[in-house]
Amino acid sequence: KCYFFFFHLLGVCVALPCFAQNICTNLPAGAVAGDFELSGNVYAGCSPFNTTVVDKSGGTDIRYDFYYTNKTPAQLDTTNNSKKTTNAYFVNTATSVYTILQYGKKNGKDMFACKNVTVRPNNQPVFSYTSCNLNFLNLIIPKDPANNFDFYTIDWGDGSSIITVNSLPSVQNKNYSSSVITRDIKITGHNTIPTGCAPPPFQTVKMDGSGDFPRITELETLEGGKKVKLTFTGAFDKHQIYQRAVTGTYSFPNFKLESNPGTLEIPLIGTEQNCFMIYKNPACIQLSGEVCTIKLDSIKPQAAFSNVVSFERHPINIVSTILNFSKVLKIDYQINAQITSGNSITNLNLIPNNSPFVHNIANCSAKYCYQTLATVTGEWGVNPSIPYTSLVKSEKMCLDRKTIVAPALTDVKISVESSSKVKIDFKENTSWPIAPKSFVLFKDSLGVFSRTDSIISLTSSSKFFNQNVNTLLEKHCYKVGFQDNCGSNSALSNAVCSINLNLSKNEDLS
After folding, report:
1. Which of helix, strand or coil describes residue 419?
2. Other C-beta atoms lying within 10 Å of the C-beta of residue 505
């Protein structure tokens, strides 16, 4: 087991388990590097791909994990099965990259080394493409672990010369001399040492606006409401991210930032809704379609067993433009609710028919967290219009019913019963919809009211506290509060104080 230790200033020590460590990128403390290779120095091939490891380390008790994924040294196999030196990899349609870990001992120390192998269904590299206008095609072959060929060829499918690519990344644009709806192209990876891979088939691509166009897959407002997490897909190239406040407009070419496809965190403009579009133009316009933020406005208890959830809707029927229009056509809403009560967690998917939305609850003392989800469907461009779908998530908002402050009691009085006793009477006149469970008395001490007594709710409408105090020397001030059946505490009532009457020598009463 592995632990990080954190020490409190007072000397208290807390031990927490650490996360799994990738031995390939971070050798454990005190370990040394091993060394091995694959027979023939072939690290990529087609399924079935047979490998034989050859030790070059000079270590002892050497073992191999042919499918290593972030295991700690303590999790590695120490049985005889891990001493095998051959393995066969199989894939169906997707290219896969596997990590082989060598581990053992060298000079009395732990020893580790790693190699990657790529297994494919054929020798087609990873690439992206986009097309438009029936005659333009953009191809990108990225620098990717799966693309470990020695060189690449592109057959444009029109009888023109085959292009050879020797280094990555590579961006290739093709303007065809004729306009057609589809083209058959082939991108092939080649190795100087044959790997037994069959050539890939020709691939049919649409030429009227198709391929890896930018698409915003998810837009989520993060905790605090100051940033969003934007995730988008597209071609293996930089894209321009545009941002506007919902009351503003986009200004071409003033984009917010540039990025390859992936996930970004972006600060929001102001406090209103923000909208985003992603733009790329290798030769003709490519857009993601527009997506805007949404948020939860509030969560409030309506009664003992219901919450009212108010949320902001996504704009609809708004046409936005970055050299080409984008229009939202349809929004489907969902509210995800997470209910925590003790160690029990329940997740619900609610379909709101409007906002505010009333959620009837069964446990008024639990913690409720809500997040609004909107599935945005729209289209951009013309001839043809290109559809898009995106998921928008609001910031998550939680309501712990115990933290809600109920309104104060307003009918409280105090009576001096004797020189050593006061009585504090009050009426249960709160309009709070959840019944009180207990009432609490607070006494003033140098301007601070501290809890001094409590009673369980009585059946009569009149309640009281008796306090034994000296009423002749000073006044005594009190406030009354209550806790409801859901665990919420009320605000405290106004203070009530005892009165001292003194008779002076000339018989004046003060």
Report:
1. coil
2. 5
